[in-house]
Design brief:
The chain has 194 residues and is of the alpha/beta class. The chain is built from four helices and twelve strands, in the order H-H-E-H-E-E-E-E-E-E-E-E-H-E-E-E. It is 27% helix and 25% strand. It is an enzyme of class 6 (ligase).
């Protein structure tokens, strides 16, 4: 089995477990994330943080994003432009959000495009070393590469439920590891080897 096939199998297994969670468990878990990271996430006012509008059975981090805004974060959401590219559009209070394609919701084309310094990243699976499996399209990997090419050093915080943790992710050279993971049971930082 190739690494790509292994990842696909793990992705399907862990997303099925997430899908099997009750709506109440997902809501309670999402709210617990605010308690675990809302005041613990280290940033200065004005820092650009990318969140996401939940799709399918993802954690709903809108309460966390609202709390980060009260601490001075400048928020944005990823918008899928095509099969290869996502951009991050500013989310300002009162501005409408629209369906932006590929099942996502975000600010419309009139919103400013920002370069986030912290990315709250949805994922399919993660391990104790900070490796992650996304949804298979590579959008975040390419977006992170673009941010780094512009001189950025974005911090990556995975957002998942505990049931999405696996013993080991079959990491590939192009994979970008997480700096931290936030689940309903806590906020964990990873030690990254340079």
């Amino acid at each position: 089995m190739t690494k790509r096939e292994e990842k696909a199998a793990i992705r399907n297994e862990r997303l099925a477990l997430r899908d099997a969670m009750t709506a109440e468990a997902r809501i309670e878990g999402s709210l617990a994330m605010v308690d675990h990271a809302g005041d613990r996430l280290d940033f200065t006012p004005g820092t650009v943080i990318s969140g996401f509008w939940p799709i399918r059975s993802e954690a709903d981090i809108r309460p966390l994003m609202a709390h980060l805004r009260t601490r001075g974060a400048r928020l944005c959401l990823p918008v899928v432009l095509d099969r290869e590219t996502i951009v991050f559009r500013e989310l300002v209070p009162g501005a409408p959000v629209i369906k932006t394609g590929f099942g996502t919701t975000g600010p419309g084309p009139e919103a400013a495009v920002l370069d986030p310094e912290i990315l709250l990243v949805p994922l399919s699976a993660f391990d104790r070393a900070g490796h992650r499996i996304g949804y298979g399209a590579g959008h975040y990997d390419r977006a992170i590469d673009r941010l780094k090419a512009k001189g950025g050093a974005p911090k990556l915080i995975g957002i998942a439920f505990d049931c999405q943790e696996v013993a080991s992710v079959p990491a590939e050279p192009h994979d970008v590891a997480l700096d931290a993971i936030l689940t309903e049971s806590g906020f964990r930082m990873f030690q990254q080897v340079s």
